[in-house]
Amino acid sequence: MGRAEERRARQRGGRRTAPRRSSGTPSVGAGDGAAGATPGGRAAARRAAARPAKARKSGIRALFTWKKILGTFFAVCLLGIGAFIVLYLMVDIPQGNAVAQRESNVYKYSDGSVLARAGTVNRESVSLDQVPKDVQHCFVAAENKTFYHDSGVDLKGTARGLLNTLRGRGTQGGSTITQQYVKNYYLDQNQTVTRKLKELVISLKVDQKYTKDQILAGYINTSYYGRGAYGIQAAAQAYYRVDARKLTVEQGAYLAALLQAPSQYDWAVASTTGKQLVKARWNYVLDNMVKQNWLDAGKRRTMTFPVPKDPRGTPGLEGQKGYLIDLANKQLEQKLMKDEGISQSQAEAEVVGRGWTITLNIDKKKQAALEKAVKAQLTSKLDPKRRKVDGDVQAGAVSVDPKTGKIVALYGGQDYFKHYTSNATRTDFQPASTFKPVILAAALESGARTQDGLPINANTIYDGTSGRQVVDHGSKVGFGPPNEDDRDYGPITVQTAMNQSVNSVFAQMGVDVGMQKVMSTAGDLGMDTKGMQAVPAQTLGSMGASPLEMAGIYATFDNHGKKVTPTIVAKAEGKSRSVTMADAIGDQVISRQAADTVTSVLTGVVDDGTARTSVAANAARDGQQVAGKTGTSDENRSAWFTGYTPDLVTSVGLFGEQPQPPYRHVSLTGATGLLPPPGRVNGGGYPAQIWAAYTFGVTDRAEFELDTNQGAAVQPPASQSPSQSPSQSPSKSASSSPPPSKSPSQSPSKSPSQSPSNSPSQSPSQSPSRTPSGGPSIENPLNPGGRQQLDSRQPAQ
C-alpha cells in the first residue's frame, strides 16, 4: 500500500488496507464467506457505516439553510402584519372618557371618619382659536417637533416602550402628542402590552380621522397641569390668573414645560433643583421654537422667565387638610411610579381627581392635639401688626409611631390657603445640632476611635474649647467652629457635649469618624444625602432637612436601629384596584446597641441639658422617659426640637421666612416679644414647648428598653477620671455623668441666646460655602420631597 492509501485508511478509521489481489489469486468460494471477510471487506463496511453520520450532518445543515431562515423570517413578519391588520380592524376609536374619570377623592382619618373630599374637576375646554398660535407652538416644541408632519405615532419609541413593558422596566419610550392625547382622553395610564397596542392603533386612526389642529386642541384641553387644573384654560387661570387667549409666549412655554412633572415644576413649591429644571425646560421649549422658525431669535433673547402667581386655595382644603392631602397624594404617586413604571406626570394624573378613597394614618385626636399645642405655645403669641418678625415665623411638625412608621399627626403651617408650602416636608432649612446624634451613631456603628486610638463612646473625653481647630492626624483642617456664646467647656465627656450641644467636640468627632462614614450613616438612617459634600462643616447640621426627615431618623433610633420610613397613607382604593403601601419598617440599618446608646445619651439632653427647662421640668411630664435634641442655626433662621418617648417620635421646627416673594430666609430673633434680650428663639424654647405640650398630652408613661451600658439613661460603668487635660484629640475615657461644675445651673435666660460673637475660623476649602453654589442638588424630578443642600452658616446650638 502506498502512503497515500494508508493515510486515507487512517482517515476512514480503519487499519492498513490489504493489498489488492492479483488476477492470478484464487477466488473465494461460497463456503469461505466468513473467512472472506478480509480486511478489504471490513474497510468497505466501515465506509458504509460512515455514510449515515455524513447524512445526519448534512441533514442539520439542510435544516438551517439561508433560504429556510429567510423564509421563516418572512413568515413571522407576515404573521405579525396579519395580526396587526386584524387588531387594526377590531379596535375602533372609543368614546372619550377623560371627563368621566374625573371624580373627587375621599380622604379619611385612620378611624374611618372623613377628613375631606378633594379633586373636583377643574376643567374647561376652549377651541384652538382661543389659544394664541405662538402658545400652540410652545406645546409642539416641547413634546413633538414633528407633530405637523408625522403619522401620529412613533413606531421606534412605541416598540421600545413595549419591550420595556415586557421586561418590567417602566415606560421609557417615545410618545407623540397624538399618542399622549389618546392616552389622556380614550385610555388610561396602565402600563400593559394590550394598552400600548391599543394606543398605537387608536393613534393611527385618530390621526387619519381628525386634523392636526383638532388633535392639538384635544391634547392641551385634557392634559394635567398641576394645581388640580385639567386643560389649558384652567391652567392659565391657576398659574397666571388670565384666560388662555391672553397667555404670552413666555407663559405658554412655562405651561408646556409643566406637563413633564406638574407638581415638581410648580414654582410655588418647587425645590431649588425643581426650579432649575423647569427653567431649563422653559428655555428648551423657546429654543426649539427658534429652530422651527416659530419664534424670532432676537425676540427670544429678550424673554425673561414668567414667575407664576401663588396658588389659590381649593374649597375643603383649608387649615391643615391641604398639607395632609398633599403628602398623601405624593406618597401614593411615588408608589404607583414604582409599581407601574409610570412617570411622575402620569402618576399625578392617575391620583388627582380619580375617585380614590384614601385612608390616612393620621390619628384624629393626635392631629387635634398637635394643632392645639402649636397654637397655645406659639401662634397665639404672634402679632405681625406689632412686630414685623412675627409675620416671618413658620412652624412645621411631624409625629410618627416608631413601631409602625405611621405618621399620626402633621402640622404644615398656619393654613394651606395662606402658606402653600408645607413646613412639615420642606428641606430648605438647616437642622443644626439635631444632626449631632447622627455623628455619634456613625462613631458607635463603625467602632471609630479618636486620633489617640481610644474608642469613641459616651464616656470619651474631648476638648470643648470654643473655636478649637479641628485636627486630622496632626494637621489642622482649617475648621474651628465656636460654641454657643463662645463658651469654653474644657475637657468634657461626649455625654456632656451632647447635653450642652458643644460644636467643637462634634466637629472633631466627625473628622475622627470620617465624614464619608458620617454622611453614609445619615443616608442609612433616612436622610437624603444626594449631592451633599462630606466636609467637616456638615457636623453642624449645615445641610437642609425637613421635620418629616428628622422624625424618620429619630424614629429609627427609637426603633432600636430598624429603619423607619414615615408613611401617611394606610391604604388607597380605586374603582378597579387597590394599592398596598410598602412596609414602613425596614431592615436593621445600625446595630441595636448603637441605636440604644444614642437614645441613652439623648435622655441626658432632656434631663440635664438644653431641653431641661421646657421638657424635663414640664409639669405635665409625670415621670415620662424622654430622649431628644435641640438645634438652633446661626443667625437664628431655624430652631428645632426632635424628641421621643418609647412610643412616639415628634420633630418640631420653626423657620424664619419672609411672607412675600422671593421668600428669603430671615432671622427669628425677636419673635413674640416675650424672650429676654436679644430675643433669640432657640430649640430649647418654643419648639421644645410645643413638643412637650403635645407629647405629654397624648402618651402614657413608659420606659425605654435599652441594650446598652452607656449614656445618661443607664448606670455608667466605673471609669478612671481624667488626670490630664486632653490634647487636640481626645485621650481618655470618663464617666458619662458630667462634673458638677459643668452641669447647667443657669436660669432659662442663660440658655443660648445669641449667635457666636466671632465667626468660626475655617479655610475656604472646608467651609460649607463650598457646597454647590446653585445650592443644591435637591431631588430627582421623579422623586418629590427630596432635598436641598444649603448655603451653610454655622449653627450654634
Automatic annotation (TrEMBL):
Residues 20-43, 715-736, 743-769 have a biased composition (Low complexity). The chain crosses the membrane at residues 69-91. Residues 112-289 form the Glycosyl transferase family domain. Residues 396-647 form the Penicillin-binding protein transpeptidase domain. Keywords: Carboxypeptidase, Cell shape, Cell wall biogenesis/degradation, Glycosyltransferase, Hydrolase, Membrane, Multifunctional enzyme, Peptidoglycan synthesis, Protease, Transferase, Transmembrane, Transmembrane helix. GO terms for molecular function: penicillin binding; peptidoglycan glycosyltransferase activity; serine-type D-Ala-D-Ala carboxypeptidase activity. Residues 1-50, 619-638, 710-797 are annotated as: Disordered. One of its GO terms (cellular component) is outer membrane-bounded periplasmic space. One of its GO terms (biological process) is cell wall organization. It catalyses: Preferential cleavage: (Ac)2-L-Lys-D-Ala-|-D-Ala. Also transpeptidation of peptidyl-alanyl moieties that are N-acyl substituents of D-alanine; [GlcNAc-(1->4)-Mur2Ac(oyl-L-Ala-gamma-D-Glu-L-Lys-D-Ala-D-Ala)](n)-di-trans,octa-cis-undecaprenyl diphosphate + beta-D-GlcNAc-(1->4)-Mur2Ac(oyl-L-Ala-gamma-D-Glu-L-Lys-D-Ala-D-Ala)-di-trans,octa-cis-undecaprenyl diphosphate = [GlcNAc-(1->4)-Mur2Ac(oyl-L-Ala-gamma-D-Glu-L-Lys-D-Ala-D-Ala)](n+1)-di-trans,octa-cis-undecaprenyl diphosphate + di-trans,octa-cis-undecaprenyl diphosphate + H(+). Residues 9-19 have a biased composition (Basic residues). InterPro entries: Beta-lactam/transpept-like, Glyco_trans_51, Glycosyltr_51/Transpeptidase, Lysozyme-like_dom_sf, PBP_transglycosylase, PCN-bd_Tpept. It comes from the Bacteria. In the C-terminal section; belongs to the transpeptidase family. This is Penicillin-binding protein. It comes from Streptomyces naganishii JCM 4654. The lineage of its organism: Bacteria, Bacillati, Actinomycetota, Actinomycetes, Kitasatosporales.
